[in-house]
Design brief:
This protein has about 500 residues and is an all-alpha fold. Helices cover about 75% and strands about 0% of the residues.
Length: about 500
């Protein structure tokens, strides 16, 4: 057997340069100038600045984020139908979609006082437009990782890089912005200045990513049809299970992210600790980043993902049960939750990229766009449910905007959003991943099988004919056309 069969092509599985890894991480920093800003501050902007009730804001977050999830599917189809000989499949979206996205973030945090109904309509329209623009940038960005390399360790580096990029932005917001969210500051001026500044910074970061993170994995079919997309999704059991697990995990994570400012300000009465918490987030991210590739090689991504979910659950228990007078205990619970969240977020993107090869192995078609879109769709619905549940928890507790001291019932509502919901979500997310079949060992075998098929069909794995269709791929492949059933994959992660 030739070396091209025993080892994936160097072009698609070789080591990535440090510049390309840093460049990829910069893209998620840019993403989170819009995403994390909305996650951390949009609810409090709606309730405390725009004057929207907590219940109405919760419904708004639910409806618009569900719309965002369907926007992801639309974006995935647009991506799979698009191909540029000059810039590739994904980078044009980063280059041409970045400025509209960042300007819509400004509009979302600039609600004019046009009456109760007018404010609500404006909030729905601007947040929905922001979500659509974000999908048309984020889906290509997330899909880009699978097109940069097929090596598990290198994908773990990319996943770590994007997590670091996101966390740097989150920490910056926590250190420099969150402490300003007090009753006596002009919050509208703060949010307007912040989002306008992000237009400049974010555009620079997106273009840095576009020019440093190159697509290197070859594809059989540059333009994927709707029929091929459905075939890929229907046969991809690992993707379905990962989507379900991510949905419930994101429900817990977004509930916590949405109300942690309320928790520190109104339950622990320690808003200055938000800056400390943000610094600790950075320490956790950089501390874990160096170990994640080794963790993947030693234990596998699935096992580490489940451990991360368990850590978030433990933190949720502490946050929910810690008495408000024990500030150090409640704060420690937040830090424990964050440790689990960071670990899962560093692994989940590498897991998603693995399912791309699984789909190609099953169908002969590589479709990063629709796979990432479905994955993002389920994560967006999880975000919708988590953000809405957090807002409803505030409403259930009787949270009153502008009150210096909230009632005991309101405090319990905040504690439920920050602790109880993440606990329940972590248990369900772990339970689903028990049945996840695509181990790192099996993924490596699949990558080799794909290269072997290409060579046996008379093609050099590094020189794929772009016009090759699924039917032609199947016809040229020697031997039986059937592939091993999904449930035949091993269930241990080694």
């Amino acid at each position: 057997m030739s070396s091209s069969i025993t080892k994936p092509p160097a072009e698609s599985a070789g080591k990535l340069t440090k510049l390309s890894i840093v460049g990829y991480g910069a893209g998620d920093a840019a993403n989170n100038l819009a995403f994390t800003t909305a996650t951390m501050f949009l609810l409090i902007y709606y309730t405390d600045v725009a004057g929207i009730s907590a219940a109405a804001a919760g419904t708004l977050l639910l409806v618009v984020r569900v719309f965002d999830a369907f926007a992801d599917l639309f974006a995935g189809r647009v991506v799979d139908k698009t191909y540029s000989k000059r810039f590739g499949k994904f980078r044009p979206f980063l280059m041409f979609g970045s400025i509209p996205l960042l300007l819509l973030s400004v509009a979302t945090f600039s609600i004019p006082q046009i009456g109760e109904t007018g404010v609500l309509i404006y909030a729905y329209l601007t947040y929905a437009a922001l979500g659509l623009a974000y999908s048309l940038v984020n889906i290509p960005y997330g899909s880009l990782a699978g097109a940069m390399t097929q090596d598990p360790s290198e994908r773990a580096k990319l996943a770590s890089a994007r997590t670091i990029g996101a966390m740097i932005v989150g920490a910056g917001l926590g250190i420099f912005v969150a402490p300003l969210i007090t009753k006596d500051n002009d919050l509208q001026a703060i949010f307007t200045s912040m989002t306008l500044g992000f237009v400049v910074v974010g555009t620079a970061l997106y273009f840095f990513t576009a020019f440093t993170a190159k697509e290197r994995v070859k594809r059989d079919v540059p333009h994927v049809t709707m029929k091929q997309s459905f075939a890929i999704l229907k046969s991809n059991k690992p993707l379905v299970l990962l989507c379900i697990s991510s949905f419930v995990f994101l429900t817990g994570m977004l509930a916590l992210s949405t109300v942690q400012l309320y928790y520190l300000r109104d339950v622990l009465h320690a808003l200055p600790l938000y800056a400390v918490f943000s610094i600790l987030q950075l320490i956790i991210v950089f501390g874990l980043a160096g170990f994640v590739p080794k963790i993947v090689r030693t234990f596998g991504k699935r096992a580490a993902y489940m451990v991360g979910g368990g850590i978030m659950g433990v933190g949720g228990i502490v946050v929910f049960l810690a008495p408000p007078s024990m500030v150090w205990l409640g704060f420690s619970g937040l830090v424990i939750c964050q440790l689990g969240i960071v670990l899962v977020n560093m692994l989940v993107w590498a897991l998603e990229a693995d399912t791309v090869e699984y789909g190609e192995w099953k169908t002969g078609v590589r479709a990063e766009g629709i796979i990432y879109a479905l994955f993002s769709f389920t994560r967006k619905t999880g975000q919708a449910v988590g953000g809405a549940l957090a807002a409803y928890a505030l409403a259930w507790g009787g949270y009153v905007a502008g009150e210096t001291v909230q009632s005991a019932q309101a405090e319990w509502g905040i504690r439920a959003g920050a602790g109880l919901i993440p606990l329940a979500a972590s248990i369900l997310a772990i339970a689903v991943m028990i049945f996840y079949p695509l181990t790192d060992k099996r993924h490596k075998e699949i990558v080799l099988e794909i290269a072997e098929r290409r060579e046996k069909s008379g093609q050099n794995p590094e020189q794929i004919d772009p016009a090759l269709s699924t039917a032609a791929f199947t016809a040229q492949r020697p031997g039986p056309t059937a592939v091993p059933p999904t449930d035949a994959l091993p269930s241990t992660d080694k």
